[in-house]
Amino acid sequence: MRHFFSTAIVVASLAGHIYGHRHAAPSNYDEAPVRQRKTLGIRTNGFTPMDKSMCPMKVAKVFIEDVLSQTAADGLSYRIRDDSYTDKNTGVTHVFARQLVNGLDVADGDMNINIKDGMVISYGNSFFKGTPPVASLEHILTGELRDPRVEACTAARQHLRANRDSYAEQFVMGTHEPIAPEAVQNIHDNCATAFDAPSFATDDIMDFRAALLQFMHTATPNSKLSEDIEENFHSYKEKMDITPVNHFDSPNSRNDVEFTVGNVPDTVNPVKAKLMYTQVPNQAGDGTDLQLVWKFEVEMEDNWYEAAVSVQPPHKIVHVVDWASDSYVPIPKKPVVTEYNVFPWGVNDPAEGERSIEKESFDKLASPAGWHAIPVANDPSLRNVRLRSSDFWRNTTTTWGNNVFAQENWEGANAYIDNYRPDAGQSKNFDFKYDPKETEKVDALAEAKKYINTTVTQLFYTTNLVHDLYYRYGFDEVAGNFQQYNFGRGGRENDGVIANAQDGSGYNNANFMTPPDGQNGRMRMYLWNTAIPYRDGDLEAGIVIHELSHGLSTRLTGGPLNSGCLGWGESGGMGEGWGDFLATTIRSNKTYSDYPMGAWAANRDQGIRNFVYSLDTAVNPSVYKTLDKPGYWGVHAIGEVWAEILWVVSQRLIEKHGYSEDLFPPAPNDDGSVPPGDFYRTTTVQGKPLVPKHGNSLIVQLVINGMKLQPCRPTFFHARDAIIAADQVLTEGENFCTLWKGFAERGLGVDAKIEGQTPWGGGVRTNGFAVPPACQGETEPEEPKEPEHGDKKKKKHKKD
């Protein structure tokens, strides 16, 4: 049966929904006052708590209503997203709101409000502040309101279509008056026609298939397919399977116009399509206008795009974010201890140490069921299998578990369930040989493949340890971490990491795709042909940690259900920088050393960045102003500047608080409580957050907490202020001056500024080396000493 699409299907999908308007505060709101702080800047006198009894969600709603009241325009509203949550350690409630205009989401209209003890401690706001379109959602959907230019183009298209065989005569039927050639050219230039590829269009502005094909025509790397889409536009359009999505069961019932679309060329899963507004720069350049777009989530082999394409023809790609960045439950008994022959935690790569036998050192809080157990109901390999067992859990003897599915991907394809992975059998001993030989270039790939058991085992081991480490610092279920089963602790499930070793789609790279919470993250690790034998990126822990950190920063910034906050500019660059910084911090020693990134895999002492990470400005001269230099427009170059700044800040905290040999918090007690040990400060105050005692563990906590506090699409200033705000929450501002001095060392002091910056990038930066007045009387830290090149012995992860 031929698939039919019209405005009717869009209108039908709205049955039972209520159009949104701005709401007055309900009468049962608490009358407690709400203290507002309108920037992420921190006052030196700290936070003054207000009424602690007031529900944080009510505080957020009153706050948002106040912000909206400052824009006296009808049609503006909002919804609280259901990925809002309270951090169990800090007690900060992170509330995420999405703006609604005429009942539709504004794709980049985000507000995050951070609340503790009844007080708004910081917030970020990218709500549209202008006058919204006068059209109601009903008018948009029924086509009653159309752009006059579109109506003119529609009439012109109809005429040209009726007379397409008599273009040469250039006569209008009934009048025999010639059509001016420039008018015909104007139609072709400005009006999309269904028979004038590649300007795809339809007379029904709510038919998103043309817009989707326009995007796929641009996005596909397959030039032959792109040409075929042009030539066979109607055929591709008619093949699409369209299914409306309803949200009748959602606690936030809203006016979503949303579909899933199958049979879309060059995609590996159905596309998600949703009608939304997005903000675009206005002609005056001093604000934004709203544009109606289709937002598409498009998963391809090598990319996972969130794209906004204009509803009205000619369909233009407005913006794109690539998510790829180069109750009580019985716990299964574990009769056999699993062992792995791997480069242990803290050994970054084969050049820095030897392999050893390591036990399955899962964390009882982060991975209660261990690394090799997965509930039957959440196991993707069993979805099409008729099961006879009534067991809740399935224990595996392969690199397949609740946190990660690790396997080879030699074909570089999207499939993973049936790909090869090592099986240790009932002994659970993942002990495989690794001794690659030097060969001729033509045989190097085959030689690397011989050791796939070793590399997949290493990838599984490292990824699970990173999962457990980040969990203990607050990247848990409600924050959007990656797990198939969430143990009844909140968040969305079925999103364990798909980790592909020796991916066949390329060389000398690695990437991680981060869709919203509830969808699997996908990591691809590559071989590096920089030496013979080939070097395997799976064996360089820093690269794996960097990629997994993309999932961390993307899920925490802007909330677990928003993966579009770190797409470009400074925000996209910091997504890279956090990965470098965390990887470098994890590999570091008590004896200071400079560190390159990716040096072993790249077979290059300096690594894959412009500079080695170092306190010495002669080794790494990066400062905030460096971002204005040629070659620093890309996210990786931006990221290494951010990572260098964080590296300097971390060393200042280490000078003040000392160094922890192990970044893992102590094992929890049987009741789930965490003993302070030598890791956390001892406190007798009920409800006080756990504070890491040492500088290197403290900065990891502050960076992760800062990600939760910063707004969507943050700048360096936002992220800096969020880290300082995180310290205010965690330690009551004990490290206020230490942090400011660290940032100021590399040009990000209080007097740093940027002129001409837009949400999409640009601007001219000025370094700032000043600190707040309250810190100017303190003794400045000594100049960085030359790195000590002494003990290079790597620390090992302390086992439970």
Structure description:
With 800 residues, the chain is α+β, with helices and mostly antiparallel strands. It has 4 domains: 20-135, no CATH class; 180-322, no CATH class; 324-460 and 495-512 and 520-537, Elastase, domain 1, CATH 3.10.170.10; 565-800, Orthogonal Bundle (Neutral Protease, domain 2). 26% of the residues lie in helices and 16% in strands. The protein is built from 17 helices and 25 strands. The strands form 7 sheets. Strands 6-7-8-9-10-11 form a 6-stranded antiparallel beta sheet, covered by helices on one side. Strands 1, 2, 3, 4 and 5 form a 5-stranded antiparallel beta sheet that branches. A 5-stranded mixed beta sheet has the order 12-20-21-19-17, with helices on one face. A hairpin with a 6-residue loop joins strand 2 and strand 3 (93-101). The chain is globular and about 70 Å long. Mean pLDDT is 81; it is low at 1-49, 144-154, 164-184, 186-198, 248-253 and 780-800.
Concise summary:
Keywords: Hydrolase, Metal-binding, Metalloprotease, Protease, Secreted, Signal, Zinc, Zymogen. By secondary structure, this protein is α+β, with helices and mostly antiparallel strands.
